[in-house]
Fold this sequence. Notes:
It is found in: Periplasm. By secondary structure, the chain is α/β, with parallel strands linked by helices. The protein contains 19 helices and 13 strands. 49% of the residues lie in helices and 14% in strands.
Amino acid sequence: MHKPLPKTLRVLTYAITLAISGTAMAQEKIDFMFPAPVDGKLTMEMTRVIKAFNDSQKDVEVRGIFTGSYDTTKMKAESAQKAGQPPALVIMSANFTTDLALKDEILPMDELFKYGDKKAGDFLQTAFWPAMHKNAQVMGVTYAIPFHNSTPILYYNKTMFDQAGIKQPPQNWKELLDDAKKLTDQSKGQWGIMLPSTNDDYGGWIFSSLVRANGGNYFNENYPGEVYYNAPTTIGALRFWQDLIYKDKVMPSGVLNSKQISAAFFSGKLGMAMLSTGALGFMRENTKDFELGVAMMPAQEQRAVPIGGASLVSFKGINDAQKKAAYQFLTYLVSPEVNGAWSRFTGYFSPRKAAYDTAEMKDYLKQDPRAAIALDQLQYAHPWYSTYETVAVRKAMENQLAAVVNDEKVTPEAAAEAAQKEADTLMKPYVEKTALQAVK
């Protein structure tokens, strides 16, 4: 018969057993920041997605942190990193990737993908639509994985079109203006068209689309220290916008936000609106008294739209266990099934090509072909503007856009010149740094 272990040894053995058991059972906890730039219901849906992931396995526990707009998400993620609590994964505006990488704040995605079976760049190139690649890479290094994407599209009141005898959505700026005049009736408070002009990225994004359509470039895609705010094509797009208000009188003056525009649209007081495909679910759900139409953005010199939306990035400072957990959650979020379901719920198109091979997505597009418009536009898509100090450089033009829509005495030429001067000043440190490197 064996003698019982001494009490101190029994306690030690029990403690070791608990420690081993606890280690085996412990979940790696990570912070995941996400914005909801379009509609409050997206916050609830993302909360559901996080819970579904947490319930599906026992290795990782994701703590979802709602962070508001794209701009505030960037600020909060940077603040958390500086405080020594970097988020393991963030849904970040896709055009912030360059600035974050240049400031050495985010990890190359291969730091996460070393826990998988392929390189991040290979995954990006093979699994995602080509139009998303450029905003996910900086100097050839993959720093982001696309999560949801958009392009600007034209929403229109098809019932109002029919009543005005308009047979099809406008294909170019001339048709857009002609249609807007037919749809405008100021005695009824009814406008032909509205474009968002806020400085929270919406104004700059829509404006960059007009510059592209006018045959121009908005920024240098290959060098993050150069924008073309005072180019003739930019000035021409700015003049077109201002003329819609003060010369053609088919759009109200002043800065318009997306909520004002959608409210006017839903009330039947607006014929056309240029907004994001990411708003499709919201627009579809709230259009009650007329038929909702969706069309490609009209051309001028060419058809062209910028990519919008968000990517997944990981901030520097997380440990290896957190990197592994972040990889597990990232691959869940961009899986064809989960990413496809998110697309169907929100209206964003899925950047993951395989999402469109699922039976659910095929049925969805069959039931509502309007959701395919953004995919159709991808052949005309360009990268979203991304520069050194992206937010401030973006606002340099957005603030001038606000001046132009508020006052017809502000000329497009003067506004463009002021925006260019401010942007050049903001980007000067990067330009000087790269010039110095070139000399060396």
